[in-house]
């Protein structure tokens, strides 16, 4: 993998994205505080006091209800056959592509994680995942290419900065930025 961007260009794009999406990230931080129950009460004398809400937290109740409904059933997958005749196996190719997509969902444990995607979408306005493969087996030995199977990794929208969209509106470029400890990076990617 080669990057066609220098480190300074990457820093500049990150800084620009942080400034561009600051209102969105501030709104997410505010709703995170509501969900976490980080409340203050202002009394008539204008003094404030940290406290549990005095009324039901309707935002959390609504979020959990909608998340349960939206994340309860996997969507259907329809893969249309490419244009052609019945003799060119377009239908069987489409069914094979559908089975491959279902196998990605199974390896990604999407049935269990769908509620988390729904929560991200309803709470932050976006839900992201990226394809990944395990490069090593559980003992740390490299896997051959034919033994690596892709799966989806859920990404936190709080760390996402969409950078570009195609003319049809599809996301074409995104930056994920987060802080990690050096020890964790070394464990994941090696000491170099």
Notes on the structure:
With 192 residues, this protein is of the alpha+beta class. It has helices at residues 7-20, 22-36, 58-70, 90-107, 110-124, 182-189; strands at residues 40-42, 48-50, 128-132, 151-155, 160-165, 171-176. A two-stranded antiparallel ribbon has the order 1-2. Strands 3-4 form a two-stranded antiparallel ribbon. It has a two-stranded antiparallel ribbon with strand order 5-6. A hairpin with a 5-residue loop joins strand 1 and strand 2. Helix 3 runs antiparallel to helix 5. The longest helix is centred in the middle third of the chain and has 18 residues, at 90-107.
Percent in helix: 40-55%
> Mean pLDDT score, rounded?
87
The helix tally amounts to 6
- Please report the distance between the alpha carbons of the first and last residues: 17 Å
Extended strand count: 6
Strand content: 5-15%
The rounded Rg comes to 22 Å
Class derived from helix and strand content: alpha+beta
Major sheet details: 2 strands, antiparallel
The helix/strand series, from N terminus to C terminus, equals HHEEHHHEEEEH
